[in-house]
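Intended use. Records like the one below are meant for learning the mapping from a protein sequence to its folded structure. Do not use them to infer anything beyond what is encoded.
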Amino acid sequence: MDTNISPIELALQKKLDKLQPKTKTPGFLRSVIERQSVRIDAALAMGYSYDELAGIFAEQGIKCKGSTLKKYHLQAKKRGIDNAPIPELPEEIKSSKSRSVKTKK
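Structure written out for the chain above:
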């Protein structure tokens, strides 16, 4: 038995030992896309592609491909699902967030 473990293997072993189980919620992506359907339609009307929108989803930690986004979005529209859309932010919250955003000069 080889007892000489390289530093790379040791680091890998430590990382693998610390892994936590992944939690997958069945239907999570589909439900998010259904609730955001109106906003997805608006983004598409402004010229964004499904791939670009999938990138925005990924920025928020929701991984999906543009093709999957398109498939789920079109299925939701076809079924006419209005699955409790996420409400708009109150106007005072929107305005305070926009004031706190710093722009480069």
